[in-house]
Design brief:
The protein is mainly alpha-helical. It is 55% helix and 11% strand. The protein has four helices and three strands; from the N terminus they run H-E-E-E-H-H-H. A three-stranded mixed beta sheet has the order 1-3-2, with helices on one face. Strand 2 and strand 3 (39-43) form a beta hairpin. It is globular.
Length: 125
């Protein structure tokens, strides 16, 4: 059975194959990760489960929110990334998910379903 560290390595490889760079760095305590262009930065001192959650979250932003024409929808993007987190963690059996897309707009649901399928495919689940 795969471990959380295996999942992290799988997503690191997926990000690299997809054209993103990944680094771990010191970030403010309230910031677990961020995306800037093709660079995904994770806070260096996260425990493995939090690192996996953050990597899924930031990878979702990188996959679905790079269009500069829609960058003004930050709150919607956070809900979408959190919904993808919930769906992926549920597929991995690490958290329960109670319909995380129920309150999202249909365009958001499409992005969430697409991103979660891309990430789950990269994880082999």
């Amino acid at each position: 059975m795969a471990t959380i560290l295996d999942y992290i390595r799988s997503l690191e490889s997926y990000a690299e194959r997809s054209g993103a760079r990944l680094e771990r760095s010191a970030l403010p305590g309230s910031v677990h990760g961020r995306v800037s262009c093709d660079l995904i930065t994770l806070r260096a001192d996260l425990d493995p489960e939090q690192e996996l959650l953050t990597l899924v979250h930031e990878l979702t932003h990188w996959l679905t929110h790079r269009d500069p024409c829609i960058q003004h929808l930050c709150t919607v993007f956070e809900y979408e990334a959190e919904a993808v987190e919930a769906l992926v963690m549920a597929r991995l059996g690490l958290q329960e998910s109670d319909h995380p897309t129920d309150d999202l707009l249909s365009a958001s649901v499409k992005r969430v379903v697409w991103a979660s399928s891309q990430i789950c495919d990269a994880l082999g689940v």
